[in-house]
Structures are given as structure tokens and as C-alpha cells.
Amino acid sequence: MKQTVTSKLMLLKLFIQKLSKVLVSNINIFLFLLLSNTVVGQIISGNVKNHKGEKINNANIVVKDSINAQYILAFCTTKNGEYRLVLPNDLKKALIEITVDTYKKDTWTLEDIKKSNIYTHNFILEKDSVVELQEVTVSTKALPFTINGDTTKFNVSKYSNGTERKIIDIIKVLPGIEVNDKTGEITYKGKPIETVNLEGDNLFGFNYAIGTKNINVDMVEEVQVIENFSANPLLKGIDSNDKVALNLKLKKAHLDVSGSIDIALGASEGRDIAQNHALNLLGITQNYKSFGTASYNNIGQNNSPFDYFSTSQNVEQIRDKNILAKPIISDIIISNNLDDKRANINNAVFSNYNGLIKLHKRVSIKGNLYFLNDRISSIQSIENTNFLPQGILATSDNYLSAKEPHQARGDLELQSILSDQSSLEYKIIFDNTKSYAQTNILQNTLNTQSAQLNTHNHNFKQSLLFTNRLTDKHALQFLASLSSNDINQNFTLNLVSESSNNIDSTFNQVCRNRKNTFQLQAILMGRANNKSKYSFSIGNYVEQTSFESLLYNSSDKVISTNDFTYTTNNLYNHGIYEINLRRLRISTSLKGRFFTQKLGNLFQENFIIEPSLLLKLKLNPIAILGINSSLSQKNFTEESLFSNPIMLSNRLFASSKPVLSLQKLLVINLVYSINNLYQQFRLNASINYLKNHGSYFSNISINRRNSYLEYFFSSKPNENITADFLVEKYLPILNSTIRLKSNYAFSNYYNVVNASDLRLNNNHYVTLELFAKTAFDYKVNFENSLVVVNNHSQNIESQQSIQNNALQNTFKIIFKPNKQWFFITNLEYLIPNKNFSKDYVLFCDAYLKYRPIKRKYEFRLDGQNLFNMKYFFQTNTSDYSINTFKSNFISRYFLASVIYNF
């Protein structure tokens, strides 16, 4: 009998209360019981044949606890005439039913089931006689996904609740997928996504956030996850098969020329008219694919893959970090712990075009064009109370900042299939970015200052890749790459006289950082048999960094200069061998490097051996246990190499005592995961250990006007231990999804404050997130996310202990009275530090949508920050200071939108 909505809500309330009591009273027992009930299970396997001994494929096998049972406890289909099932742990008796077209149904009963046992039973099916039956209609709820080999297809409509606008909103809720909102990186089962394809073609490259942030949900029919992915078809079955990609399959109506127009205008509290406009165009033909987007908004949205507000790096920047120069002087705009959309007071114009043309069946050309123009403003203040050996010192800075980034970039990629066995790829990127930042500063409530920072970043890189498939089992690749990154910065600080309000003195800091790289590499890869693969590479990587800085005052008196060239040469060979022994995968790696460094008169040579080992055990079709360990060494980059002071901000100066020592790293990872799509259950648990020998530490000296950082090298070891846990389950009885996610991090670190001794500190960082959402077949549903953070630091020498605790809760009510109307309200409550509970923040947002049936347009009404919260306060304590940070929010606004899809 169907449960009423009231009973479901009562059950949900009782369940959450019970779960909360268990978590609060003894969370360790909860996790132990959960693991013990999911890790250990019983396995039954066998084969299915007909009376002639022929294997039968695609037979459906289900497990119930009795003949007339309504619920299916486990399910699978035969492949190559074989089947394998994992039985629920608490099952004492099982009825196994097998059905397949043209054969008679067969059953087998298994009684007195023992934990962790493995059972075997083979079926022999008899042909079914032809019997004329009356028409029977069977209806069942279709699964929201299908699995076909290495590809899992998720039906977008099945995972949508109506709140989603762009396809990234659907990707975030797909089982096994995690999205980093700051970087845009997508992972599946813990593995980073290589690319997001559009109808099978890699249109966006590493900047796939262009597609995921801007393609409308209504355009996409399926999100496909492709495991064992190979970007180069010539390497299929030869290269490493541990890569993952996404593919967006469009609806048939969009397999030509389609798009959408968004026009949104509204009222904003104390600012210009709120606006959010966008145009998206999608073109798909047999030989041509393109996606273009153009947008303008001043409500804090970032539609580009580049972040100029919080300076988070995107996927491409993280992958290219070794070939990119670093801007030494950072913009003064500081981000906070909330989403950027709460504080990013912007005026952003962004446009992008991506096109792929198949000139010939063997030749294709791809182009990507980017243009960005923005103006970001912020009002912030920082107050510090420093506990120094000399006594207590209080400082403060109030900032009124504006930053204007301008970016123009073009990518070109040419692919040519030279023959059935060989291909050639050429890629080139030009990126030109200019940024101007203006800041007015009130220091210590008395001293008025103004600062300007001009940054010009020019980046160029190109690569040529030749691939030749020698045999069915062997392939050879040659890679040549060249890059150049030139960053020029000019920072001016004006000190204003208190009496005349005129500029009293000026300091100018000029920096130029140029990095050039060149690489040649040859890779031989292959498979010895169906169970083992290998690759062997040899190459040379050369990197040269030229750094110049000049600090002078208004009298053109030179205060400090730096001028050095740092060159490294890395001659290496790298061997990888991978073998699959049924359920166990072993991957070993050994890298040998002859590494040389030259910095002025300093010169050092090192011969380095870097081994690694990966073991991955497939416990059953849904559970994996893995361990990964590696030893490596790395050099330090230019920010640790300038020996004379550089002015980094209105208050901070930094210098270093450069050495050519290497940092030695030991990394060990242990991972256990379960991903059961059929049971809608997911569990991930990992422990990571990192130990490094040799780091640069900071000696900080603080006074009322300035702070001085001096970096020095020490061989003191640092240790970091992190543990992550995630469990997610859909509960059919409650029509709800529950997710528990936690992280624990422990680290040791050293510092020096105002000429103190090198002080050892440790830090414990714990986060706990409890998420629940309902999927009632009713007009109202709910969603809640609770995040608790505890940060505990301690100075070992003084035993001084410091705690920083935060709490954030987000509650949503989703109301859908019919197919045309949709309403959602969101309450977000944040305590940045529970020790300072007065600094709480409460947001209320609301959203209303009306979409007529079988129409291409829809209307929306948005209200953001309805309580009109003005400022964000956060107070943190460290081993030597109390820091209070204040920043302004985007004020309350209302936005009316019209969206037309064509």
C-alpha cells in the first residue's frame, strides 16, 4: 500500500533525529557499522547455457528473499554466458530467478547463507514452447542510467528537479562525480576528467568549463562518462587505460543550429541597474561543430574559465604550472570563504568561440577564441593584534579597491591522420592579459596611501606530436614543445601627507619575470599481452627563468635591485610497467634524471631516482582497494630566489636566502571505494601521507608600518596526514538521499616571528558535512546542507592552543505546483568563527520560473540577498596573532529574465 506524504515526512523526521543522535553520541560506531555492512558480502557466480551447452548472453538474473517478494535485492545480466552477483550482507535466504527470451524461467534457492562465502551455481535453460497469450502491459520505472561496457550514460531529465540552468548543475549531482567550484575541475570516482567532449569531439580542450558553465540543460539529452578513455584513437588498447572523459550527447532538435538568448534586468540596492544577458549559439553538422557564447553581467557571475576575483587557478593553469611564470606582486583584492557570487562586485563582458572543422576525412582544424573585460571592486579591512616577544602590536588597513582585467587569447590545433598507422598534431596558444588595479588605503586609521599595480602577462606555447602505431601492440610518439611566458609588473605606492593631503613620497617597484621552456621527448609504448602494458620514454627538458626587479623612491634613489638568471636542465628516462592479474592491477614506475641547476655563481648537479608503485585490487564489481606510493625530488622556483627586498604590497616586503637544494617527497595513499549505481550507494575512504625534507621557511618581522618576510632554507621535515570519507545512499522508503562527507588533516610546520627561534607548530583541521534532499512525488521537496569546520593549532614549545570553528547551513524549499510553475527559496546561515558568534551571516534568496508547455520561452524572477547583508566579518587566531577580516557583499537585487531557446 502506497505511503501517504504525511507518513513519509514523519519517517524522514524520525530518521534524521535518530541519525543525528547516533552521530553526536558516537560517530565512530556509526562509521564502523556502515563499513562492516557494506564491505563484507556474499558472492554467487556461475554460467548459463542451453541444453546444447551453448552460452546464453543477456539473461536477466534477479535476487529476492522469497517467491512473491516485491523488491529486487540484486540484479545483473550475463556476459559471455557468465554472471556474478554480490548478495546483501544480512540476507539469510535468497531466491535467484533467471529469465531470457525464448527460454523457460528457472529458479534456485540458496539457504543458510554464510557471511563472506562464495557460492557457485550453473543454470541450464530449456527452450520455451510457443503459447498464445493475451496482451499484457507491464509498467516499471526506468533506470536513470545505462551501462554499456566502459560507458555510463546518465539521462539528464531523470536527474533534473527544475532548478538547473546550465549543464554543470546536472553534472554536480550525478553519482560518482565531484566538481570543484573554485577551479572548475571535474572528477569521477576520484579521477580527474581529461576533457568534456561535445558529440564525441574535444571542442573545449582543458578549458572545458566553457561548455559546462554555458551550455543550457535543455540542449543535452545525456551526460556520458567514458572510462578507459584514449584521446588518440591510434593508441586505443595500448596507452594507459585509467583515464576518464565526459561526452555531452545533444537532443536531436539541437543537431543543427540552435541556441538561447537570455535577457535580464532588475533593480539593485544602491548600484547600477542589475543586468545579466547572454547569447549561446550551437552549430552541429557532419563536418563542423561550433559553440559560441557572449555575456554581460554585474551580479557576480563568472561565465569564463578564468578567475580574476579570488585568483583560483583553473584546470589548464594547474596542469601548466611548471611552464608558467609567477606574478610576484599579487593584486590587493582578497577573497573570502563564501562563494564568489556573494562578493564579486563585477562588470564583466565575456565572449568565446570554439569551432572544429573537418577539412578532409583525415584533416581537422580547431580554434578557440577568448575575450574578457571586467571591472571588479571591493571594500575590505584587516585588523591584526600581534603577540610578539616585545609586547602586543596592533595594526589595521582599510582598502577601497578596483581591478580591471583585459584578456585576449587564441588557440589553434591542427590534426592530420597521415596514414592508417600515423598521425600529427600541432597546437599553438597566444594569450595576452593586462590588468590595472587601483587601491586607496587607510593604514592604522591615520596614514593615507594610494597604490596602483599594472600587470602585463604575455604567454605563448606550441607543441608538435607525432604518433606512429608500429604494430597492433606497439606505438611510438615524438613530442617537441616550446613555451615563453613574460610577466611585467609596475607597483606604485603613494604616501599622502596628513596635513596637506598631497603626495608626500612615492615608492616604485618594477618586476619582470620571464620563463622559457623547451622539451624533446620520445615514448615507446605497448602491450606484451592482454594483461600487461608498458611505456618507456626518454627526453630533455630545459627551463630558463630571468628575473629583474628595481625598487626606487620619488627621488629616483635606488633602494633595492635583483637581477638573476636561473637555468635548469633535466635529462631523463622514465619506465612504466602495468600488469592486470584478474582482479589485481600492478603499476610500477621508475624515473631516472640527471638534473643540473645554475643560479649566478651557484651550480649543482644531481642524479635522481624516483620510483613509484600502484596496487589496485578489485574486490568485486563495485568495490576497489588501492594503494599508491612514490619518492620524488623537486627544485624551488623563482619566488624563493630573489636575495634583495621586493615591495609586495603597501605593508609587506620580502627577500630570500637562495640555495639550490632539492626538496625530497614521500607520498603514500590508501583508497577504498564502492560505487553501486543500481543500489544508489557510494562510499569513498582514503588516507594520504606526505613527508618532505627541505623547505623554505619564513622569518617575519612586524612593526606598525611594515612587515618583512625573509625566506630561508632548512632541511627540517614537514609531515602531513589527511583522511577523507564520503558515504551517500538513496533511501527508497523515504524517497531521500543522505550524504555524509568528512575530512581530517594534520600537519607540522615551522615559523620564525620577530627573530625568535625556529618554532614547531602542529595543526588539526576537521570538516564534517551532512547533506540530505528529498525526492517526494509531490509538490514540495526539501534540501539541506550542514558543514562544520574545526581548526586547532598548537605551538609545541609554549603549548599555546588555538581553535577556530565555523558552521554553515543551507536550507532549500522547492515548490512545483505543476509543470509550468516552479519556485525555490534558499536560506544560508554562516558563523565564520563560533568563538566570535556575533559575526554571523544570514542570506535569503528566492527564485520563480514560469515556462508554458510546448513553448520555447520562459520567464524568471530572481531575488538575491533579500535581507541585504552588507558585510562579511571573520576572525581567526594563529600562534602569534588575532586577525579580523571584513569585506562587503553584493547588495540586494531583483532580476526579471526572459529566456528564449531556438
Oligomer: single chain
**Chain-averaged pLDDT:** 86
Number of helices: 5
As residue ranges, the low-confidence spans are 1-9, 11-40
Radius of gyration: 30 Å
Quote the distance from N terminus to C terminus: 45 Å
3D shape: globular
Task: Tell me the major beta sheet.
Answer: 31 strands, mixed
What structural category arises from helix and sheet content? mainly beta
- Overall strand count: 46
The share of residues in helices is under 10%
Strand content: over 45%
Protein name: Outer membrane protein beta-barrel domain-containing protein
Walkthrough of the structure:
The chain is mostly beta strands and 902 residues long. The chain is 6% helix and 61% strand. The protein has five helices and 46 strands. The chain has a 31-stranded mixed β-sheet that branches. A seven-stranded mixed β-sheet has the order 9-10-14-15-13-12-11, with no helix packed on it. 22% of the residues are buried.
How would you sum up this structure in a few lines?
This protein has 5 helices and 46 strands.
Task: Please name the defining characteristics of this protein.
902 residues, mainly beta, Immunoglobulin-like, Ferric Hydroxamate Uptake Protein, Chain A, domain 1, 31-stranded mixed β-sheet, seven-stranded mixed β-sheet, 5 helices, 6% helix, globular, disordered N terminus, Outer membrane protein beta-barrel domain-containing protein, CarboxyPept-like_regulatory
